[in-house]
User: What shape does this take?
Amino acid sequence: MAHARPIATTRSATGIPTPRLAVWWILASEVVIFGGLLGAYLMHRIGHPEWAEAASHTQTWIGAVNTFVLLTSSFTAVLAHQAAEKGKGKEAAKLLAFTILGALTFLMIKSYEWTIEIMAGYTITANTFWSFYYTAAGLHALHVIAGAIIMGFIAVDAYRGRELHRVEIIGIYWHFVDVVWIFLFPLLYIAK
Amino acid sequence: MSENNEQRDEQGHDDGHHVNYFKIYVILLILFAISVVGPEVDELTGLRWITLITAFGIAFVKARLVVNNFMHLAWERRIAKWLLASSLILLLLFVAGVAPDVMNHEGNNWENVAAKQAVERGLAAASGYSEEEAESEGPVEEVIAAGFSAQNSFGQICATCHGVGGEGDGIAGAALDPAPASFIDPVFWQGRDRDRVITVIRDGAAAVGGSALMAPWGALYTDDQLEQMADYVMSFRPNQ
Assistant: This one.
């Protein structure tokens, strides 16, 4: 450590390390963002019986495969955290790379799925159900993209044995993205 | 790095709790499998509530497992839990506050006409879907079945070549020879009447000796809809 760390990095009044406290704050705001969106969807879904018809056209199996992919990537993310805690930077980097691979797989499957829907005429403007479908899954996909990019930087650092505590931080964020999908999956694909 | 390790020890975060991550992962996968199979059981038994439990009940259990064991919230300082909980409470307050307005379409002194119409339109279109789907699949047919309006249909199908304003300047028409007809041209309307327009839309221009590039669209429309389409095309005709 050649350079001095900023005080805010180590100071903590809550007893929680600052970076981890920061990610909890982010997630607290994400709860409202995704919760508001999903809550609005749920209320409209109950008030509009005709959405059942539109909802019956979503690709359940594609959604299911993506659920499996995200659950698995969460598993590799937590294993990366475990490795980082033991100081095994290279192993943590490798596991983060697997997690990024999961993110990319998820996004490719998502693109394939959206292509099918759009070709069939189910675009974001088709009706309100599809507007919610693309908005909710799209916002989630943006989080997947952001997480994968940040994870890339952290993996490179971890490989060199630097900033290993960050592996946990990105992991917490990543599990949250997984949790959002855990709710999106039944809302958009299972409850028909 | 020693700095980080010290910090971690001070926070008491890694104070000897051991989670078998693989076990949690397997449980998550089993729960996931149940949530996928749920609707099938639902269909077989006709018990609607099964899906509700397997889909949403399980989602909460899965989320709890991930939050506690993967995010380690169970071992986190209490303030983080309060932080997330207050966020969740605010969210629930918001949802509860707007739910009466969003979920009901009428109240003592008000009526959400637009929402009611949307439900009616949607249900009507949905019943139309199933009949239509047997014989045709594809975006064009579905759009028409979903709620016919001559103007929309013209915009989606005819305007591709004839242009939204009927001037024969649609994107796909630019390369066609002969060029698509312009409905605002008085010359075009000489010797053309409503019946002929209907025939051309239904059977294609070749049926009346015109260009085969004007395809037959009869399969898309009922007789009544054909007449509406013709009337809409006629509405471009300039007054003389």
Remarks:
- Chain A has one domain: 17-190.
